[in-house]
TrEMBL record:
It comes from Aromia moschata. This is Transposase. One of its GO terms (molecular function) is nucleic acid binding. InterPro entries: RNaseH_sf.
């Protein structure tokens, strides 16, 4: 424990003056006898204290270099300001208190958007995690046999993260960024990550597929429905006030054409995934468990029937042999690792209005991922499953 100013003065008194001066060894022994619970002082410490007193006339600490210490009253004012308005910016606090921004010792944490869990989700998540841990303990490497899959959307007209892109101002300047079209062009990407194939084949087997906005048959049917519905509505139109309803109906059908549907997803499974699975070693192919979340396209009867025939009881999903818990993106590798990593790479540079360029950049981003990163993501998945079970299914991020 370092000596304070009072301890140094006490040591000076023990040294004495005139003919009654003690040696440094005697001072050390006397100080230890008076403070047996403290660390003994050394003779060099006693000598340094005596020399400082003779040279400076005091034993106080020298002024410290660097930034001056913040006044305690200012620190209290900062705390009160943060308690009164937790959403206040660092700049505003420093301006109101007339101090530097570095003196505000509070960190401006950002709001993180997460899925809200329903009442039954906690039990479902707990049961799923316990099931996974039990099977992984019984069959070492069970989680490594899972082919995690998911879809993500990459927008062509630039990536604007409103949480990271901001401006400082006293007033709202209504800062905007223009889009190229009314409905932003986008590329839907499906990806699947198996772990065992990485070590078995000796190369990266992260498979990706660009999902089209719908099969030709679906688009033709939807357009026919759109035209028929629009024509029928025009014939029944009696007032101009009904026109907005027609526009909304037309826009709803057009949006349906652009989004992922069951036929597009099933076609991808039958034509693309099957070929990719045939490239895997037979020993792994027979052990693989296919995983998907519970989005409507995945839950279609035709999709589930195909999964039952293709994977038998070896698939995980909504109403599947192994139930995937709803609202659980924190448990799948693609949500907590892959998509964020790929988008960070793709949107590192500004994009041109070129869909093929966007696809090329996504493919290059996939190739840039290392096998070590993918293995680490599986280890992270195991850890997350254990934490989720310990938390009773609650969100843990």
């Amino acid at each position: 424990m370092p000596l304070n100013e009072r301890d140094r003065i006490e040591i000076l008194m023990m040294i004495g003056v005139g003919d009654r001066m003690r040696t440094q060894q005697e001072v050390c022994r006397l100080f230890h006898e008076m403070h047996p619970d403290r660390e003994p002082v050394s003779q060099s410490t006693v000598s340094r204290i005596e020399r400082k007193y003779r040279e400076l006339g005091h034993v106080r600490d020298a002024p410290r270099q660097g930034r001056p210490k913040i006044n305690e009253n200012v620190q209290q004012d900062v705390i009160l300001s943060a308690l009164e308005n937790p959403h206040c910016t660092v700049r505003q606090v420093s301006r109101d208190l007339n101090i530097g921004k570095s003196s505000v010792k509070y960190h401006p944490y950002r709001v993180r958007l997460i899925h809200e869990l329903a009442e039954d989700d906690f039990d479902r998540r707990t049961e799923f995690c316990e099931y996974m841990m039990d099977h992984n303990n019984q069959n070492n490497g069970f989680i490594a046999n899972i082919l995690f899959s998911d879809e993500a959307t990459f927008f062509l007209n630039g990536h604007v993260n409103r949480q990271n892109t901001r401006y400082w101002s006293q007033e709202n300047l209504h800062w905007m960024q223009e889009y190229h079209t009314q409905h932003p062009q986008k590329v839907n990407v499906w990806a699947g990550i198996p772990e065992v194939s990485i070590s078995t084949v000796g190369e990266k087997k992260l498979v990706t597929k660009f999902l089209e906005t719908g099969s030709v048959l679906d688009i033709k049917k939807s357009k026919k429905l759109l035209n028929e519905d629009y024509a029928a509505s025009v014939l029944e139109l009696h007032s101009v006030r009904e026109a907005p309803k027609l526009s909304l109906r037309k826009r709803a059908i057009e949006t349906e054409i652009k989004n992922l549907n069951r036929n597009t997803y099933l076609g991808m499974l039958q034509n693309f995934l099957t070929d990719k699975l045939d490239e895997l070693p037979l020993s792994y192919r027979t052990r693989i468990f296919f995983q998907q979340d519970g989005c409507p396209a995945h839950h279609a009867v035709t999709v589930r029937n195909w999964l039952n025939s293709e994977f038998n009881e070896h698939w995980i999903g909504r109403d599947g042999p192994i139930l995937w818990p709803p609202r659980s993106p924190d448990l799948t590798i693609l949500d907590f690792y892959l998509w964020g990593c790929l988008k960070q790479i793709v949107y590192r540079e500004p994009l041109e209005n070129d869909e093929e360029q966007l696809k090329t950049m996504i493919q290059n981003a996939v190739k840039s991922l290392s096998m070590e990163e993918i293995r680490n993501s599986f280890n992270e998945s195991r850890a997350r499953i254990e934490i989720c079970a310990e938390k009773g299914g609650a969100l843990f991020e």
